[in-house]
Amino acid sequence: MSSDDDEGGEEYLFKIVIIGDSAVGKSNLLSRYARNEFNAHSKATIGVEFQTQNMDIDGKDVKAQIWDTAGQERFRAVTSAYYRGAVGALVVYDISRRSTFESVARWLDELKIHSDTTVARMLVGNKCDLESIRAVSVEEGKALAETEGLFFMETSALDSTNVKTAFEMVIRDIYTNVS
Ligand code: GDP
Ligand code: MG
Question: What is the ipTM of this complex?
């Protein structure tokens, strides 16, 4: 995170990480938010580490540098470099796969271990378009978020539901905490 005002306008840079089990839709949430793209056959992306999105808050230029894993989570090998300096996190599960919801506690632990500062955290139940095969209720998601002190939102990277809102809530919360 940085702030400088040598040209009159302030600038902020926030690092945000997206974590959660493999195939919950992390990469598609990011591509939906940053490029308005969805990929039905997405493979673990290799190479691209993060995408930057600009947002104007109170006339301030806020840049969110949003990091996506390159699929390391399949091997439980997300490194500390991935978390380093993060001030925001989206912890994602898939509402149609209960095991991904049960993994959330482990991801929160991992985040806690690797972060040296307050992190704005949002629990994200993705794939809410898959209502017919839902395996985790909205109430369960909300309850877990409340217990752990996280924001909560159900999203769909497929049909765009709440994707922008989820990222922007985290970015605004970080901004509020530092400004
Ligand atoms: P990651 O491993 O967490 O990065 O997950 P991906 O973004 O690669 O997505 C895994 C699979 O889930 C892909 O086949 C996506 O097309 C699919 N997917 C991602 N988001 C959604 C969503 O919101 N709804 C539905 N129905 N499928 C999704
Ligand atoms: Mg991915």
Answer: 0.99
